[in-house]
Amino acid sequence: MDRKKILIIGSRGMLGQELVLAFKKDKAYEVTAWDREDIDITKNKGAEKKIATLRPQIIINATGYNAVDKAEEPKEFLLAKKLNGTAPGNLAKIAKNLKAVFVNYSSDYVFDGQPEILEPGGCTHVCSSCSLHENFVPAIGFDEDAKPNPISNYGKSKLLGEKEMKKNGKKYYIIRLSKLFGKPGAS
User: Fold this and answer.
1) Domain extents for the chain?
2) In 3-state terms, what secondary structure has residue 138?
3) In what order do the strands lie in the sheet with 58-61?
4) What secondary structure letter does DSSP report for 86?
5) What are the C-alpha distances in Å from 73 to residues 35, 102, 120?
6) pLDDT digits (tens, 9 = 90+) for 14-40
7) What DSSP state is assigned to residue 8?
C-alpha cells in the first residue's frame, strides 16, 4: 500500500497536535509534523526549499496568529497579516508547484456576524395577511458563497490568507472555524 505523505505545520499547537494524532492512527498516511522551530512559514524561500525536499502530497497549515484582540495594535496586525495572510498564500503556491493539496484553517471572523436570512419565496413582508412563514425554517449561518465582511484586524488577516490562497493555489481547502476546543498546545 502506498502511503500518502502529509505535512502538518503547527504540529505542537492545539489543532496541530490533534491532527498529528488522528493522521498517525491512519495507516494510509506517512506523517511529518513541523512546528515553528522546524520551519518559518513567513520566510517563503526557506519554507519552499524545505517543503520541496520532503515532497508531501498534502500540506496542512494548522498554525497562525490567533491573538484576536491584540491584532488591533498596529505592530501586532502586521504580524497577523504575515502569519494569517501572506504565509498561507505562499504555502498554497508551494503546494501548487508540488501538485499537492493544501488545507488551511481560517475563521468565521471573516464575516461581520450578520448572516443574510432568506425569506420564503413570495414574501411581501406584510405578515398579518401571509401564511408563508408558518412552516418556514430559515437557514441561519454562512455558506460557502456568503460575502466576507470582516470587522476586526484578525478577521481581515484571515480573509487576506483566503484571498492569497485563491490567487496562488490550485488544489486547496479553506476550513472556517468558529471555535476550537481541545488540549492546550505545547508550543
Assistant:
1) 4-177
2) coil
3) 29-34, 4-9, 58-61, 101-107, 172-177
4) I
5) 25, 30, 43
6) 999 999 999 999 999 999 999 999 999
7) E
The answer to whether 171 touches 94, Cβ cutoff 8 Å, is no
Nearest Cα neighbor of 57 from 96, 11, 110 is 96
Among residues 148, 144, 145, 168, the alpha carbon closest in space to that of 59 is found at 168
- In this structure, CATH architecture of domain 4-177: 3-Layer(aba) Sandwich (3.40)
Which cell numbers in the block locate residue 108?
Answer: 468565521
Q: What is the pTM of this model?
A: 0.84
Alpha-carbon distance 134 to 43, whole Å?
A: 56
Say how far apart CA 20 and CA 164 lie, in whole Å: 26
Find the length of the chain.
187
Q: Is the separation of the CB atoms in 62 and 19 below 8 Å?
A: yes
Task: Name the 3-class secondary structure at 172.
Answer: strand
